[in-house]
Amino acid sequence: MPAPDSPDAVAFGERLRVARNGTGLTQEQVAQKLNVARTTVVAIERGDRAVRPDELIALAELYGTSVHALVRKSAVHVDLTGQFRRAAGTTDEESAEAMKLLNRLAASSVELERRLRRPLVVDYPPERALTRGRLDAQAEDLAAELRSRLGLGMAPIPDLVGLVELELCIRIFIRGLPSKIAGVFAFHPEVGACVVLNAKHPRKRRAWTLAHEIGHFLTKRHVPDVVLLPKAAKPATESFADYFAPALLMPSAVIRRAFADTVAAETRFSSRHLILLAQKFHVSVEAMCRRLEQLDLLPQGTYEALRDRGLSAKTVRAVTGEDDEQSAFAPPSRLTLLAADAFSAGLLSEGQVADMLAVDRIEAREILDALDAASEEAS
Predict the structure, then answer these.
(1) How large is the C-alpha radius of gyration of the chain?
(2) Residue 30 near residue 20, CB atoms below 8 Å
(3) Nearest Cα residue to 224 out of 99, 76, 92
(4) Assigned CATH for 1-73
């Protein structure tokens, strides 16, 4: 480790401080884990005291990273504080793990961009302040503006994740999170906007979560916030995001028209029509049904009534011929492509790729092999 009081020691101590902040741990909590006094942790983070090898190993484990990631000079450590909804039963430790993962993946992205000299050039839409008017109307207007910016018109969005990462330059990561955390959004002026989505959730639910987080990105990107669910009185920004997600994925004008066309042709709107409309817009049957209820095209409580009468994933498969929960092919993320390019250029080992992507060595090898095979097919 760098000698105490040297410029490198000060920089390394700051790196450890940022890594600690990314986990939400206090200096006192870290001191207890290391079995040292808090003043020792303070001295290490100031660069006044060298960290011992055993302490470094323990710190890497605490901070959800590797020793190599902490000590290599090119490593980047970011200090993001996120926004996310936390369902009842989610522990503080699970929330901290989610934030730790987001910080780790964001840091990997920035480091690889610098090493490969491919900075992420962003042109974010301006943040929009909410007014005292109806939040649902504001959500519809802003969703229409974003669709226009992205050149979508009224078309369904088959791959919201890929579109947002490419066109809005939001860093998006899909990794396993505690089941009650759908996703985490964070913004930092030097890092930009980042979202981690729960890989344990179905693809359509991840798209819904991302649409919700985009609502926060457009209206409250600079303010970290944790919303506990269920909650009787939601913050205005959370209610707005709840309105924004369906408005973005299912524009009211085209949904009204599709509903009217169906009723005109067949005189009634059945569960089969509901399933097919949900499939067309790449949303779940529940999301589509609740959108129709929201637009007063179906009576409130229709989804519960259909579910009680037997509407299920099996019903969806019978109508569409596919599993509504199956994940469709998704193009690799920007982070994955950067890591693969760095590996091909000899800048990273296979183990370092795994570390950068926060996956194990087997999954890292599978990712590299798949991208290599795709590259050969393309050539």
Answers:
(1) 23
(2) yes
(3) 99
(4) 1.10.260.40
Residue 243, judged by CB atoms within 10 A of its CB (0-12, 13-18, 19+), counts as buried
Place of tokens 């009576």: 299
Is the torsion defined by CA of 325, 217, 145, 286 positive or negative?
A: positive
Picking from 316, 283, 304, 331, the residue whose alpha carbon sits closest to that of residue 161 is 331
Q: Where are the domains of the chain?
A: 1-73, 79-246, 252-320, 334-378
Block mean pLDDT (10 aa), the chain, length 379: 62 84 84 92 90 90 81 69 67 82 89 92 91 94 96 94 93 91 87 91 93 94 65 78 96 94 85 92 94 96 92 80 54 89 93 91 92 71
Q: How far is CA 97 from CA 57, 61, 197, 216, in A?
A: 18, 12, 13, 21
- Global pTM? 0.80
Pairing of strands 225-229, 83-87: parallel
In sequence order, what are the beta bridge partners of 226? 84
Whether 116 and 339 have beta carbons less than 8 Å apart is answered as: no
Residue 47 near residue 12, CB atoms below 8 Å? yes
Q: Which residue has the tokens 């919201």?
A: 160
CB 219 within 8 A of CB 141: no
Residue where the block lists tokens 């840091």: 107
Helix 236-249 × helix 285-294 angle, to 10°: 110
In this structure, the number of other CB atoms found within 10 A of the CB of residue 293 comes to 15
Q: Contact at 8 Å (CB) between 277 and 288?
A: yes
